[in-house]
UniProtKB/TrEMBL annotation:
Transmembrane segments: none annotated. It comes from Eiseniibacteriota bacterium. This is Exo-alpha-sialidase. It comes from the Bacteria. Keywords: Signal. Residues 1-21 form the signal peptide.
Length: 449
């Protein structure tokens, strides 16, 4: 059984009322919607090759479900609300945003979402110029259902920088007894979409929560359920998914009849080789499998106990997971220490603090910034336990270190967060000192400067 290498070590030292630094590090508040917020949050984040960052968040308010698109022109230091999709009379509800950016023949920001109202359900994909100062959206209704029976969706492209990039779109649709998974493709940078068709449809099985990524093939995962028992189902398609015959057979990770739930399935693939990875939550632990032949064969599942999966992503040469350690409410970033995805992963604090209230599993945005040496960045909705506004927050690895401690701010006292005095030691034997301190939960924390 494999485990993440965590910088969170248990100890029974008695805490005292001293804090090493501001908890939460240099997290940036993107936007707060406290006047009408009632719950249900999700987010994701992308970046252009020139360093413009975009993020999206869904929030349930007194106006119903709303979607916000945020933009930063200074690598995440400041953010503006760039677009809002809402209806003041709750006639139309907007949900399940999926955001990607492309730098090809058309530099476009794409947004997919689900709009429901008037007993009608629509899954829609739109685009705007990613480099323009203000957005001008053009949307296409990919599928319309007069019975209001869509649910979840996912959007991706085969290359961010290839001039003639294709777009790939998966969404769920009610069949009378459960949800089937449908797929559509655009070969003209989102201007038009081919007719959707079912790619996951099995009698007695309901498919929800799709995730897509493109490596040398298109990879699709979904959460599948049978009478409430859930598993993870995977399917891939050949180069550029020419038609319905391009899809290979489904692979089931787990079982819909074993009484063990597998939730929040995610997939990531590497375009520079044949590797891909599928991860999910099971019994409050992260499980994952990987492939080195584009999904033809898979390793046995590795397990990391005491973590929940919040996001999974890849760049040109690596992978990362956004995770939440048990008993800690902040989000950590975990990266493999080698090309062996089933081997050791290094886990460090990323966004949020140990006592902040964060939104549920699977709601973090995770991506890389190509203008910052492909360093990782994340978004999450959280409510700070110290003085601060609840809302969508951002942090990136290039911002003075991953998470906390905050090296740009002098240490301050937090009466609600008791820790011991910090100490220095070479914990991992690399001849560099780490900072060690004990927090209010009784955990011994080891932080790499």
């Amino acid at each position: 059984m494999k485990h993440l290498v965590s910088l969170l070590l248990l100890a029974s030292l008695a805490p005292v009322n001293i804090s090493l630094a501001e908890v939460g590090g240099d997290d940036v508040l993107m936007a707060t919607h406290t006047t009408s917020a009632t719950g249900s949050f999700s987010s994701n984040i992308v970046a252009t090759d020139t360093g413009i960052l975009f993020a999206t968040g869904q929030q349930t308010t007194f106006n119903g479900n709303e979607i916000f698109v945020y933009r930063s022109d200074d690598n995440g230091q400041t953010w503006d609300t760039w677009s809002t999709f809402s209806h003041p009379l709750q006639i139309i509800h907007y949900s399940n945003p999926s955001l990607i950016v492309t730098d090809g023949i058309n530099d476009r920001l794409f947004l997919a979402y689900h709009a429901s109202g008037f007993s009608q359900s629509t899954v829609r994909v739109g685009y705007t110029d990613a480099l323009a100062a203000t957005p001008s959206w053009t949307f296409t209704d990919v599928d319309v259902d007069n019975l209001g029976n869509h649910r979840d969706l996912a959007l991706t492209s085969d290359s961010k920088t290839f001039n003639s990039y294709y777009l790939y779109f998966a969404f769920t649709k009610w069949n009378g007894t459960g949800y089937d998974m449908y797929f559509a493709r655009s070969t003209d940078q989102g201007s038009t979409w081919e007719t959707p068709y079912a790619v996951m449809s099995t009698a007695g099985i309901s498919y929800t929560h799709p995730d897509l990524d493109y490596g040398t093939r298109l990879h699709l995962v979904a959460q599948s359920s049978n009478a409430g028992d859930t598993a993870t189902r995977y399917r891939n398609a050949g180069f550029r998914v020419l038609n319905s015959g391009s899809w290979n057979a489904e692979i089931v990770h787990g079982s819909e009849t074993d009484g063990i739930d597998q939730l929040n399935a995610r997939v990531a693939a590497n375009g520079s080789d044949l590797s891909a990875m599928v991860a999910w939550n099971q019994n409050e632990n992260i499980h994952w499998r990987s492939t080195t032949d584009a999904g033809n064969t898979w390793t046995p599942a590795a397990v990391s106990n005491g973590y929940l999966l919040y996001g999974l992503a890849s760049n040109s040469d690596s992978y990362a997971m956004a995770i939440k350690p048990s008993g800690i409410l902040g989000i950590y970033i975990s990266e493999p220490t080698s090309s062996d995805l089933q081997g050791l992963w290094l886990t460090t604090p990323m966004i949020g603090g140990p006592n902040d209230w964060i939104s549920g599993s699977g709601t973090a945005g995770l991506s890389f910034n190509p203008s910052e040496n492909e360093e990782w960045m994340a978004t999450i909705w959280y409510d700070p336990s110290y003085a601060g506004d609840p809302g969508f927050y951002f942090d990136g690895e290039w911002r003075g270190g991953p998470g906390y401690p905050n090296w740009e701010t002098e240490p301050i006292n937090h009466p609600s967060l008791a820790t011991t005095h910090p100490a220095l030691a070479d914990i991992d034997g690399d001849n560099d000192l780490e900072i060690i301190y004990n927090d209010i939960t009784g955990a011994l924390k080891v932080i790499q400067p």
